[in-house]
Design goal:
Blueprint: H1 4-59, E1 65-71, E2 82-89, E3 92-99, E4 109-112, E5 117-123, E6 129-136, E7 139-146
Parallel strand pairs: 5-7
Antiparallel strand pairs: 1-6, 2-3, 2-5, 3-4, 6-7
């Protein structure tokens, strides 16, 4: 009889170990799905800002004209604050974003398909995002700020 009890203990220990592995792998899968969803939401916001930038540029056509638009952006994504930045160089303009309150360049970017001078940063939780466009001497300038 004493030799049967250790067999039960080993079986119970093995079942507990296998159960822990299953729970851990399910937790990792759930966390991975959540991270993919938050990253997709951030990318959707980038595309929204790029689209609204083009719409604002199309409405600003006269010289010395200023146009302002408030952007409908959430204050958090998955309980995380985020930042959005518009910028440009000689090759074009883009929108980039990331999680946190510190702006770190070289994040995935969404291009704004227009010749424009773009600048400005919005950090979520600091008011509403405001996109402004100024057109002067055939040069369009986009600025992203917070209200």
């Amino acid at each position: 009889m004493p030799s049967i009890i250790p067999g039960y203990v080993y079986s119970l220990f093995a079942a507990l170990l296998v159960g822990s592995i299953i729970v851990y792998s399910c937790s990792l899968s759930t966390l991975n799905i959540k991270n993919q969803a938050t990253n997709q939401q951030l990318k959707n916001i980038d595309e929204y800002v790029a689209t609204q930038s083009l719409a604002l540029l199309s409405r600003t056509t006269e010289n010395n004209q200023n146009t302002t638009q408030f952007l409908d952006i959430p204050s958090q994504i998955g309980n995380q604050r985020f930042w959005i930045r518009i910028a440009n160089d000689s090759s074009g303009a883009w929108v980039e974003s990331g999680f946190g309150t510190t702006v770190t360049p070289n994040q995935p970017q969404v291009n704004i398909p227009a010749q424009v001078v773009a600048s400005g940063t919005f950090i979520s939780g600091s008011g509403r995002a405001v996109l402004q466009c100024h057109f002067e001497n055939q040069i369009a300038t986009l600025t992203l700020t917070s209200e």
